């Protein structure tokens, strides 16, 4: 069961081949039963464990097994398409679709366009057999109902009259704590903002050491990126692409994470704010760090407040805050990164101040509010220059640091943003589009009790 997509391929191949020779080859019935048992065990495990390899590999693996379930129903009369995990699978695919309905969030080794991340294949079968209206909604919104997918079997199974949910899923944000993924969303408007957080204990081969990595999409434009596929790479490129340095993560004294261990213990989605906390403490060496909590607050529709609650081990340490505005992926192209209207040169000394990131007609601004003395610049990873430069902001050395970063996404007017940290509470104030905005976030206590959040606008 260690390799999600490989196991799914094995079980599906065994089942389909055995069904095709049932009644003609001795032992086919036993092979069908074994494939059926493996499929059901797989669905049961996905409902309870932390395994995921990213949207692309998950969609492919689940698609294979739903294909097997379809064949078992048609040929053997076994109905497993009502398994309780399958509606959650639909929710998982839908929750990480970009607002313009063209892409899926790119964590781990797989993401990208909705035609390549083939949720449309299992969703077509589920919609046809079970009438799942959320599967129908996804297919309708992405216009993937009539697309062939891997083969033309999908067209044979297609039911153009399948139910379609009348409204987009509500609330628009979602969390999948066992997978360690959360989505924060301004709403389902096609030009809206979508933020995804990954803090997981998935240890599959296509997963990366990138706990508390987050992505930002404006409509369908990827503004904060994941470096993408890395499993076939070697040397410095593999170290970069699979490690925390190649993601929107935190480094400790320049050191990366050492294991794939993380969780999302707290989450909330409302009409005004989406909130998630990732705990990546166990992803780092215990000799380097005692706490690595990341709080994401999407102040709807277009402000993202990133609060990193960090506690060093073994003395004072520097923390590096990373953001990748461009990558090897051609989608989105190379961003223009400026400060005060002047282009920032790669490798130039880091300096204080806001940073503006522009991709064509899309833009966002990074404001490093806390602690005082944060400096930021553009750097490249030696040996992985083909992945292009990325933003690195460095904090002054301290045993405990709370980094507060405001990210303005697109057209939003923010005046006088300020943040303070005192007695375990982060306070943020600003005037947003002419209205007073105030956030008070009480950080998680030592006993693990829940953070507390108050948000006021106007």
Describe the structure.
- The protein is α+β, with helices and mostly antiparallel strands.
- The protein is 22% helix and 32% strand.
- The protein is built from eight helices and 24 strands.
- The strands form five sheets. A nine-stranded antiparallel β-sheet has the order 9-10-11-12-20-17-16-14-15, with no helix packed on it. The protein has a five-stranded antiparallel β-sheet with strand order 3-4-5-6-7, with no helix packed on it. Strands 8-13-19-18 form a four-stranded antiparallel β-sheet, with no helix packed on it.
- Helix 1 (4-20) runs antiparallel to helix 2 (28-46), helix 1 (4-20) packs parallel to helix 3 and helix 5 packs across helix 6 (133-142).
- The longest helix has 22 residues, at 55-76.
């Amino acid at each position: 069961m260690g390799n999600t997509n490989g196991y799914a391929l094995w079980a599906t191949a065994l089942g389909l081949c055995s069904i095709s020779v049932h009644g003609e080859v001795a032992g086919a019935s036993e092979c069908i039963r074994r494939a059926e048992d493996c499929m059901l065990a797989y669905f049961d495990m996905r409902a309870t464990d932390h395994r995921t390899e990213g949207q692309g590999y998950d969609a492919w693996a689940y698609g294979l097994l739903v294909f097997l379930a379809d064949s078992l129903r048609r040929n053997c009369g076994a109905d497993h398409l009502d398994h309780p995990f399958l509606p959650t699978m639909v929710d998982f695919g839908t929750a990480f679709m970009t607002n313009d309905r063209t892409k899926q969030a790119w964590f781990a080794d797989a993401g990208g366009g909705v035609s390549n991340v083939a949720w449309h294949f299992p969703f077509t079968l589920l919609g046809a057999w079970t009438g799942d209206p959320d599967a129908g909604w996804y297919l309708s919104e992405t216009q993937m109902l009539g697309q062939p997918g891997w083969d033309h079997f999908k067209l044979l199974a297609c039911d153009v009259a399948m139910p379609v949910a009348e409204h987009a899923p509500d609330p628009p944000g979602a969390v999948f704590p066992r997978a360690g993924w959360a989505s924060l969303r301004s709403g389902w408007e096609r030009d809206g903002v979508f933020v995804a957080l990954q803090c997981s204990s998935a240890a599959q081969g296509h997963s990366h050491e990138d706990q508390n990595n987050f992505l930002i999409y404006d409509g369908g434009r990827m503004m904060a990126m994941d470096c993408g596929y890395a499993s076939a790479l070697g040397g410095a490129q593999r170290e970069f692409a699979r490690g925390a340095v190649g993601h929107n993560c935190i480094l400790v004294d320049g050191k990366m994470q050492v294991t794939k261990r993380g969780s999302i213990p707290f989450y909330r989605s409302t009409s005004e704010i989406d909130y998630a906390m990732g705990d990546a403490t166990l992803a780092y060496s215990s000799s380097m760090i005692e706490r690595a909590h990341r709080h994401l607050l999407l102040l709807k529709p277009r402000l993202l407040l990133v609060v990193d609650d960090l506690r060093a081990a073994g003395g004072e340490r520097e923390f590096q805050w990373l953001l990748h505005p461009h990558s090897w992926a051609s989608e989105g192209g190379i961003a223009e990164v400026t400060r005060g209207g002047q282009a920032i040169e790669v490798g130039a000394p880091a300096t204080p101040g806001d940073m503006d990131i522009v991709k064509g007609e899309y833009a966002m601004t990074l404001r490093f509010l806390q602690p005082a003395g944060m400096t930021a610049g553009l750097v490249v990873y030696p040996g992985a220059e083909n992945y292009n430069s990325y933003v690195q902001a460095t904090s002054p050395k301290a045993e405990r640091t709370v980094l507060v970063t405001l990210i303005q996404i697109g057209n939003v007017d923010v005046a006088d943003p300020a943040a303070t940290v005192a007695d375990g509470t982060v306070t943020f104030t600003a005037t947003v589009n002419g209205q007073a905005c105030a956030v008070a976030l009480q950080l998680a206590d030592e006993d693990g009790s829940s953070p507390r959040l108050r948000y006021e606008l106007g």
